[in-house]
Amino acid sequence: MQATILEQSLSTLPLGATRFFDSIGSTNDEALRWARAGAPHLALVMADEQTAGRGRLGRRWYTPPGSALAFSLLLRPESLPAPLLTRLTALGALAVCIALQEHLGLASQIKWPNDVLAGGRKLAGVLVEIDWQGDRPTAAILGIGINIASESVPADNELMFPATCVEAELGSPVDRWALLRATLQALLAWLPRLASADFLTAWERRLAYRGETVQVFTGDGLPLEGRLLGLETDGALRLRLPTGEIQSIQAGELHLRPAGFSQ
Ligand code: BTN
């Protein structure tokens, strides 16, 4: 039933192929398996429930049935120059922000590198994983999870950062398949423009905490504190330290927090 509704809703998008699961471990894992079995560029895996959903830095990602969007889009690097692989996380986050704004009128921001925030709380996350053969990337899996209903928001004590969901922010029920379609539409529209200055501008415009003082925990030593100025051309975060020095931060093992944040 859900698969039929979904197929209809996505039928006019130029996807390579689609697979829908009522329940699965992780859509990223399934997309990777399918990639290795020859799935085409823009193949899409979606699930109503994930039992082993994964987030960045090995964290768990909750996708209880009927309450969220969890999907993974397979991109073939022959259709995508290798230097652009680093922009895919931002592409996913940007697509979610555009869909929320244009489809639902909900403002959101990108907490660099991969979170989408609304009202200062996290409502979506992006996990990009690359499959390699030696030093050649053979597939990029762009996984996106969006909290739609309150059941998809984990309990506070399981969170590194406060979370919310689309319905709580809007105060009304949401057609998740229509939001999926809008997100994929935005993603497919920006994919050919990944290398453009416009892409960087669109990403930077939605950057959370821009102009504010933030703390960056890089995992080695004390957190760096500085004013978040924006993005470098390679997508690194640009901070001005209290000494006046400009520091670029590359995505990696880090947590970004507004200054004074405690949890
Ligand atoms: C994060 O915020 O750390 C990233 C979360 C990414 C979750 C999505 S849900 C679809 C896809 N399948 C997974 O197992 N993870 C991603």
Can you give a write-up of this model?
Helices cover 25% and strands 31% of the residues. It has six helices and twelve strands. The strands form two sheets. It has a seven-stranded mixed β-sheet, with helices on both faces. It has 263 residues and is an alpha+beta fold. A hairpin with a 5-residue loop joins strand 10 (237-240) and strand 11. The longest helix has 17 residues, at 88-104. Bound molecules: biotin (BTN). Biotin (BTN) binds at residues 26-28, 50, 53-56, 59, 61, 70-72, 114-115, 125-127, 143-145. Biotin binds next to helix 2, strand 3, strand 6 and strand 7.
Question: Concise description?
Answer:
This protein has helices at 2-10, 27-36, 88-104, 166-170, 176-190, 197-205, and strands spanning 17-24, 43-50, 68-75, 109-111, 115-118, 121-133, 136-147, 213-217, 224-231, 237-240, 246-249, 255-258. By secondary structure, it is α+β, with helices and mostly antiparallel strands.
Q: What is the end-to-end distance?
A: 41 Å
- State the helicity in percent bands: 10-25%
Sheet having the most strands: 7 strands, mixed
Present as ligands are: biotin
Radius of gyration: 18 Å
How many E strands? 12
Number of helices: 6
**Uncertain ranges:** none
Overall spatial form: globular
- Helices and strands, in order, run as HEHEEHEEEEHHHEEEEE
Structure classification = alpha+beta
